[in-house]
Amino acid sequence: MLNDAKLFIIPILILGVSDSLAGLTGILSGKRVRNIIIYKMKFDKTNPGTSVFFFTAFIISFFVMHWFVGNFNMETLTADILVAFGAALAEVFSPRGLDNFTVPLTIMLILSLFLGLGGRHLSPSSALYSI
User: Fold this and answer.
1) Phi-psi category of 30—alpha, beta or left, where left has phi over 0 and alpha has psi -120 to 50?
2) Among residues 77, 42, 12, 48, which one has the least CA distance to residue 69?
3) Most Cβ neighbours (<10 Å): which of 10, 17, 23, 109?
4) What is the pTM of this model?
5) Which pLDDT belongs to residue 34?
């Protein structure tokens, strides 16, 4: 299972693209927007930044999974949504700088669970390897 490229490509792309865009969005929105508050705990993340992180993580996961799997089904869509949601949660709850470790680890864990729990639809199709 560790030789599956999805386990490494998706986390690195999400960390590089989504985290950067979320940071830029949070900086550009400045003090005009509210920070995220969960159960009276205030986080140093903004709502627009986290939303941008979630949507870009979903788009990256969707396209990379579609590229590797070769077909579209509910299992891949569910994996894409959970990857984006888990990565966004890991990014919100991680203290400064630690998200560079927790976001890829969370994504790898979610993808590993999907691959390990009979994720036969997340396996590459033979059409991609016949090229």
Assistant:
1) left
2) 77
3) 10
4) 0.80
5) 64
